[in-house]
Amino acid sequence: MTDETSLSGRVHQEPSYLDAILPIVALAVLIGGAMALFGLAATEGPLQVALILAAMIAALIGLGNGHRWEDVEAVGRRGMASMVGVTYILLATGALIGTWNLSGTIPTLVFYGLRLFHPDWFYLAAAMSCAVLAFSIGSTWATAGTVGVGLMGLATLVGVSPVITAGAVISGTFFGAKLSPRSPSTVLVAELTGNTMPTHLCYQAKTSAPTFILAIVIFAILGLADGTDGAGDAVIASELAALDTLFRITPLNLLPLVLLFALSAFGVPASLAIMAAALFAGLMAPVLQPNAVLTFVGSTDLGTPAAFLKGVWQAMATGYQANSGIPAVDGLLTRGGMDSMLMTIWLILGALTYGSLLKEFGLLSKLVMPTIRMSRTPAQLIAAVAVTAFALNVIVGDRYVAVILPARLFRDEFERRGIPGTSLSHTIADAGTVTSPLVPWNSCGAYMAAVLGIPTLLYLPFCFFNIASPLLALALAFKAARRP
């Protein structure tokens, strides 16, 4: 083994292959145990414990190779620092869901949707609407946390499958953002692989457009063939009446959505844009929905202005609660609040700490470099990129690491062999960015499960675009690699 300099300046041993494999095997065993014992409820604590224990095993391996505990702490701090932006977005989204319910924004979206969306075309319409919004603002998280939330509630009221709806939302959201020049991940992939944005987007469209067309065809077939006519006119009429009783339904309630759209279009960071839209909805609530706010606060000795303030503050902190007497409507509106995101933050914290230790202690590169050496043909090298990007989503739990690390490790090899950089860029995007919501402990998978209210493993089979896109990308990349 060779000696290297550690983070603290000490000389340490290069990790062995056993060192690199052991924490990954440990994580697989712990996650398997958590799923076997707790099922889908594993994300409510057991999965987080599994990630923390696996991180401790990685730390012990680092100590055994000569690193000091100060190195472990430094890596942990960097891992936590990398999730600051994610934490802000999660907390802002929780606040937004709470105030958008209180202000009538989400109820208004659902009210109009009940009138416009036919059950037979619901999944298709959900995918298309999310694709348009995500392309416009360039944010998967903002799209899922706003229109996606409304569509999930609407699915329950209309009488179609919320699980399939979640797959449609995620498929449309990631397709739109993947082709958006405003998407941070799209910009990052283009820059890291040395491609101009127009060139990168052109090659992205070659894989993304066919797979999204395939996805929406499947969603259309599912909508027509699921054998349901929806909730029925009488049920929908009662739901519309309940929404109209709880809230004053007016297009003005949609102004927070317009604000979010405008801020995102002007390049305002996602966390700031989402929080601004949440606060704006909070300001609108006492003006447009005074009765709803006072009913939410309940009996109090506070004056009206203070009661309004308490209601908005409470909606941001712990979410909104409805009591219409119709379970489907109450289930739609009773959610949100920053505290609803704390379990997700815990999950992402464990995943990023674990992934940071593997990366900084050289355990990931120990496993990846042999795949480069063993990839003798262009097709094998491209396949290695795809496998590495997806594996990093699983192991590290962060889509940006799944983009950055393969770009840095494979770019020189692609240039040395004369393989077009476009093959590298769209393979990374298709296998790294698009597959991130399919992993429960990945930051994207955890976020989508939290805001849409459907466990990752339930919606995964219906994310047709996310599943098909990397497969088609591999096929096209192999074809391009064989060209003289």
Provide the gyration radius in Å: 24 Å
**What is the distance, rounded to the nearest whole angstrom, between the alpha carbons of the first and last residues?**
40 Å
Please give the count of helices. 24
Mean pLDDT: 86
User: In what order do the strands lie side by side in the largest sheet?
Assistant: 1-2
- Coarse structural class: mainly alpha
- Main sheet, how many strands, which sense, barrel? 2 strands, antiparallel
The count of DSSP E runs of length 2 or more, i.e. the number of strands, is 2
Q: Order of helices and strands, N to C?
A: EEHHHHHHHHHHHHHHHHHHHHHHHH
Q: What percent strand?
A: under 5%
Uncertain runs: none
Q: What fraction, in percent, of the residue positions are helical?
A: over 70%
Task: Note the overall shape.
Answer: globular
Description:
Belongs to the NhaC Na(+)/H(+) (TC 2.A.35) antiporter family. It is a multi-pass membrane protein. This protein is mainly alpha-helical and 484 residues long. It has a domain at 85-340. It is built from 24 helices and two strands. It has helices at residues 17-38, 46-64, 69-82, 84-102, 105-116, 122-137, 140-158, 162-178, 184-192, 197-225, 233-246, 255-265, 270-288, 290-297, 304-318, 327-333, 342-360, 363-374, 378-395, 399-417, 421-433, 443-452, 456-459, 464-481; strands spanning 3-5, 11-13. A two-stranded antiparallel sheet has the order 1-2. Helix 1 crosses helix 18.
